[in-house]
Amino acid sequence: MTTTMTSRERVMKALNFETPDRLPKDLGGMLSTGISAFAYPKLVEALGLPPRLPRLYDTSQMLAMPDLDVLDALGCDCVVAAYGATNAYDQDGMWHPYDFDGRLPALVRNPGAFQPQPDGSILQNGVSRMVASSYVFDEEHGGQPVDWMGELPMLDLKQYKKNLAAHVLRDEQIIALSDLCRRVRASSDRAVFFSDNSIIPDISIHTHGGMAVFPILCLTEPGYVAELHEIATEHTLCNIRLLLPEIGPYVDVIMAAADDWGTQNSTIASPAVFRKLFLPYRRCINDEFHKLAPQVKIFLHSCGAIYDIIDLVIESGFDILNPVQWCAGKRSYKEWKDKARRRIALWGGGVNSQVTLPLGTVEDVAREVREVASYLSQDSGYVFCNIHNVLAEIAPEKVIAMYKAAGTVTDTAAI
Prior knowledge:
This protein has helices at residues 7-15, 40-46, 68-74, 157-165, 171-187, 214-220, 222-247, 271-277, 279-292, 310-315, 333-340, 356-359, 362-376, 396-406, and strands at 35-36, 56-58, 63-64, 78-82, 85-86, 96-98, 106-108, 114-116, 122-124, 128-130, 191-195, 253-258, 297-301, 320-322, 345-347, 382-383. It is of the alpha/beta class.
């Protein structure tokens, strides 16, 4: 007799390298597995569901929070608990209409953050901009211009430590996050995916000064980088010790780091830099996560060609690696799976998002999903979704084909 698992059981079986009843799937569990708010209404219509305004839980990337009936239609197994928002139950008072200068009728949390400009662009918080031909907000130089004729920018570490101290979680924040997670847990049998910046370490190859600067500082000023990471680690440990005991019983997966180490061809810095200046601090934080909430899985998002540091990611103590961008670099999805097999779970990688998904036919998409997901799900340790977000230009028929094809991958046992 075959017993159908709940979505939560299905996801956790996979993450524990066991065989679920079917391949678990995700759409929008976190802010790199979602769908553009410009593509979302077309997907809703193509699924034959009632129209609705998309809720944007990330207005920089312009991502729609998937509704429960959409998750049902696609067979997806995760709900969101992200930055105070969720799709597990209604939060009507949180969302307010805004139409992005007529381009996209939607619901946002703060309409006052947006200022239409005479040239047709929209400013967000006076900093980032979405031009009329774009589907996302961005900043010139990524907000981090570099003057190569001067000294590379470095933080005043005493002031940095003082600034972080001002962001230790307060009682009211902990209560609010705990209440959110408790209610999400009670509202859904899907896996609960928690994200919040308060427990994501300020440790990244591209944060302090930007991708152009910080990797160089790792080479020229390793003592400075080590001290910075020590300060960030101490602060993160403080916050997770306050929060994890309160939310741990109610969540299944925690977004513990977002640190894009890969370009299209290689890692941004060497594995030696990762081992010396990142791994010890990541390991310290992840060990504390596991100590405080041993049943919760710890998730790393790291884009690009990072095959050469997968062993180091595993040694750092992460349980899950995303987005599985196997099409970057000179490796294959089979090599990624073989490197990760029964050592770290993979979340994503279901289709080549830069070639097959945008440029292939619906049949091409379905064929590649079946091929890739069948291999990645061997020995389990796999949750299906796209490599990163489904972009605005992707036709809804391809999204439906992607999830339908994944639903046909039934043999996740060891081969």
